[in-house]
Write a structure and sequence with these properties.
It is built from 10 helices and 5 strands.
């Protein structure tokens, strides 16, 4: 199995060097790049073959959430894992809506951080327990049903959207649909384009699916 290719966007020198050491000394992971600011990340990440980006929120200039918003429009294959000190609801949901696929806190132990990267790469949405509780809590109130326009989706895209709504990971969708994970990603990308959204949360909200991470 190929190594998981990782990039880091973190402005604090000590934390960035710590993350670099964690990735460099872990079996099955390969560090591709590390950036001190979002601007350099936007300029370079779209031309690099990166699987997972560890993204800080509080960056000088463009913040991490804005950085992800730009990057997801340029490269749908790369996945983004927020790695931050922020636990407040607004930051969490802004990051997820922007296109982050997972959200962990900087105090996460190194082994759990590596497990989160692996889980994300496998199609999951890893979150620190405190963050997961906030996300689950946000769905405590039932949503009103409203019409969604999905006529432009193919039967296969409808099938994948339904599986996403049920909380299945990309790997699980691939197994259930007898297709590759990369094919699942292409279908999801096509769904995003047709629904004019950037994240699966937005896609599911647009077609009134009840979405769990």
């Amino acid at each position: 199995m190929d190594d998981i290719r990782v990039a880091i966007v973190e402005d604090t020198d000590l934390i960035r060097k710590s993350l670099i050491d964690i990735v460099n000394h872990a079996f099955g992971f390969k560090l591709i790049a590390a950036y001190e600011n979002a601007e350099d990340a936007v300029d370079n990440l779209t031309t690099q073959n990166v699987d997972v980006v560890l993204m800080d929120i509080n960056l000088p200039g463009m913040n991490g959430i804005e950085c992800i918003q730009k990057l997801v429009k340029l490269n749908y294959k790369t996945q983004y894992l927020m790695c931050t000190v922020y636990e407040d609801d607004e930051k969490v949901f802004d990051a997820l809506q922007a296109g982050a696929h997972g959200y962990i806190l900087k105090k996460t132990p190194p082994q759990e951080l590596l497990e989160a990267i692996s889980q994300l790469h496998a199609g999951g949405s890893p979150m620190s327990s405190q963050i997961a509780r906030k996300v689950v809590g946000s769905f405590s109130q039932p949503k009103k049903t409203k019409s969604g326009n999905t006529e432009m989706l193919t039967d296969r895209e409808h099938e994948i959207l339904d599986l996403l709504a049920k909380g299945y990971r990309y790997k699980e969708i691939a197994e259930k649909s007898f297709i590759s994970i990369e094919t699942v990603r292409r279908h999801v990308h096509n769904i995003y384009q047709k629904l004019h959204v950037n994240t699966r949360t937005e896609a599911l909200n647009k077609v009134n699916k009840f979405f769990f991470f």
